[in-house]
Amino acid sequence: MAALHDKAAGYLIWGVEDGTHKVVGTTFSPAKAKAKGNEDLEPWLNRAISPRLHFQFHELQHEGQPVVLLEIPRAPGRPVQFNGVEYIRVGSHRQKLKDNPQIEKELWRVFETTPFEETLVEENADAGTVLSMLDYPAYFELLALPLPTDRDKILDRLATDRMIVADGAGDWNITALGGILFARNLDSFRTLSRKAVRVIVYEGKNRLKTVREQVGKKGYASGFTGLIEFINTLVPRNEVIGKALRKEVPMYPELAIRELAANALIHQDFAVTGAGPMIEIFADRMEVTNPGLPLIRTERFLDTPPRSRNELLASFMRRVGVCEERGSGVDKVVAQTELYQLPVPLIETAVDSTRVVLFSHRPLTAMDRADRSRACYLHACLRYVERDMMTNSSLRQRFGIEEQNISIASRIIRDAMEDGLVKPFDPNQGKKYAKYQPHWA
């Protein structure tokens, strides 16, 4: 019902009489209530509801009587099921959604026409509340605009970019776009708190021991620079020896980290509740995971024009320079790993999530055939989108193979062709000046 009426949440109240709305109190206590099988109520509800919602019970006193309020966030992109069945409230009665086709049709229309960014995360807030919840100075700073001294001009400017919308009664509603980009504290917005970025550092190569974990609180736009700086302080560093000096360099290129973090924020699926972007740092790799499956096939990330579920979010992040309009960012990541002669990134999907893995330096001799073939394929993709072709010479440069070891590069190309990843540019070409392209070209 919240989605149908464009509200941030719906509510159930215990302790108020139907019809008269008289406060009569209640003996219901959600903390003590039991469900089937004597299971606690909240975990039972969490398991029965799909997709999961970050609902919350509030117990309070009103007019001297105990009252319980259940706050239920609006459905995130599709109707919510309870034990596999979708329900709707019709008047004072609960009915199956499928038995009300007109309401079902209207509900799906709302889901299809209302992007996540335009949903409301705070309603009927006065000007002071809006400005206390949103980091408006960061908004003006990122857009290189002077900060107005007049409060109404600040609000008007935020409304221009749909960060807030007037509620028609003199107050304001904060949109998900405004909250996710410029929240002073994401915990202030119940439906956004689980979308904060988590950064976790582990000891060694597995998840057995956590060294450090931090959950970001700021909005994505206002907190992005701080996020990247924080990650760079945690990334392991390698010592390299120049002609006269020793110096430490980060294990992974900063540009690659920046692009992967930006992609995780922008391209996540906000309909996947209970999960947010996560960056995990291990001794030998870094994994960047975001909720939601990609809209394009992972093997075509380099050449396919970027598509985002969250166009308003992506557009604003481009305007403030977090990401660029051109490309998906993955081409930059691959180019940077080649420049630093790192193993090729691994892009994979899991249940309702997408993960990109950056690996620390590993000599060619330590790579298996799958690693080498994947690197050869992505090198061919990168050359192709640059309107060029992969050659034995370009692949040797990518891996740092000496010219006298030309046969090693030839073997990698042969393996990649046998694996169906690359193909000759010209089937009749001679071996000496042979060029290669991705299998889909």
Q: How many strands?
A: 21
The chain-level mean pLDDT equals 87
- Strand order across the largest sheet: 12-11-15-16-18-17
Count up the helices: 13
Rounded to an integer, what's the Rg over CA atoms? 26 Å
CATH class of the largest domain: Alpha Beta
Any idea of the CATH topology of the largest domain? Heat Shock Protein 90
Examine the secondary-structure arrangement and name the CATH architecture of the largest domain: 2-Layer Sandwich
Stretches where pLDDT is under 50 for at least 5 consecutive residues are none
* Structural category: alpha+beta
Query: What composes the largest sheet?
Result: 6 strands, mixed
Portion in beta strands: 15-25%
Query: Kindly, what is the distance between the CA atoms of the first and last residues, rounded to a whole number of angstroms?
Result: 48 Å
- Percent of residues in helices comes to 25-40%
Number of domains: 4
Please provide a brief summary of the model:
This protein is α+β, with helices and mostly antiparallel strands and 441 residues long. Helix content is 31%, strand content 23%. Helix 11 packs across helix 13 (406-418).
